Amino acid sequence: MEKLIIRGGRPLSGGLAIKSAKNSVLPIIACCIMSKEDILIRNCPKITDVDNMLNIIESIGGETKWRGADIYINCRYANPRLVDANLTSGIRSSIFILGPILSRFRYAQISYPGGCDIGLRPIDLHIMGFRRLNVRVEENNGMLLCDGEGLRGGIVNLDFPSVGATENLMMAGVLAGGKTVIRNAAREPEIVDLQNFINYLGGQAHGAGTDTIVVTGTKKLSGGEYSPVCDRIVAGTYLAAAAMCTGDVTLKNVRPHTVYSVIEKLARAGCELYETHNSVRLIAKNRPKAVPKIETQPFPGFPTDMQAQITAMLSVADGSSMIVENLFENRFRYTMQLAKMGADITVKDRVVLVKGVKALRPAATTAEDLRGGAALVSAALCADGVSEILGIHHIDRGYESIESDLSRLNADIRRAR
Ligand code: UD1
Q: Is 230 a catalytic residue?
């Protein structure tokens, strides 16, 4: 079994370019199902979630190929009746293929999607939305059967601004007749990116980044080359790690507006932050200061995908902090692992109380989910001595060789069997 071995206690320093966002690349790959032409997606992370999505595309007859860090896709011969249940049940993002398949083929059938075990992740909003677009959806024995013969634009009022439901419904509307209006839409940068991609291929979507998105149905999508937005969560993870370990790091290819809520909290923790239009530099000279309260919220609020990493940082802060998780239940399992390293953390329902300790001690820990795993890596980087982290397949779902990135930032970290 692979593990990460980390000799902690060194400040982080240096520069690193951040790749395209996992959460942009996944829906963009799904969106390619609607085009019969060649598409190249630039600067993608080689991570298991992306490979799984490419396997799904191949399983329905699409052609995919890595060309360096770019992904080539052609879905001319896609046949959605072939979706492999073994592939879709293992990855939550497989839900994204429903919208594009329905839009192009008017019929879709997949098994219930799987994914990161961070709590109940229902898909009722996706299903309700499809029904508003006149799709007949039946759930049968763990399968979703969607008859989109009557698919047409309509108005969908989401109860909650779900990222996945917003993206899925946008894509369903692309080749549907009429206007699809999504109200209370999610506003994440990855949704703006999906809109840009749809429009780049000749679709007609506007409003992404606000709470109302309108997609006007079009006849077909073309091909081309596209560079997705940077991964704001990978960037945030490394910034929080540097805040925790002290140091001076510059992350390139980062759009600062995508990480404002995170850099705001890091500034409150006492870090110096400098931004250009496509980079962020963090200088941390001292132990971080506590931040009294952080609540996860949909964008532009503080991202739930940074909750674990910021809690790890606050575990060595001077003072006490409170973190409230509003999006997912069961997203605190990593705190038990941090406790093994001496962190003083109390969890009650969706609230975490962290009393900062002066130092963490090295330990053997196990990652149980993607971002919780990243938090354990930061903690190990900060603890003076050698730590080991197991369960790193979770981390590999979202970070392309986290050990190479962090080595570039002066960390002593390696992967071993
Ligand atoms: C996406 C991100 C994930 C991030 C999350 C929240 C991708 C591939 N993943 O996940 O990294 O943590 O946004 O920013 O982009 N919900 C329902 N019914 C639904 C759909 C969602 O109740 O049909 C609930 C979920 O259980 C959760 C909340 O809405 O409590 C947010 O989920 P959602 O925004 O849909 O997250 P994902 O798209 O799954």
A: no
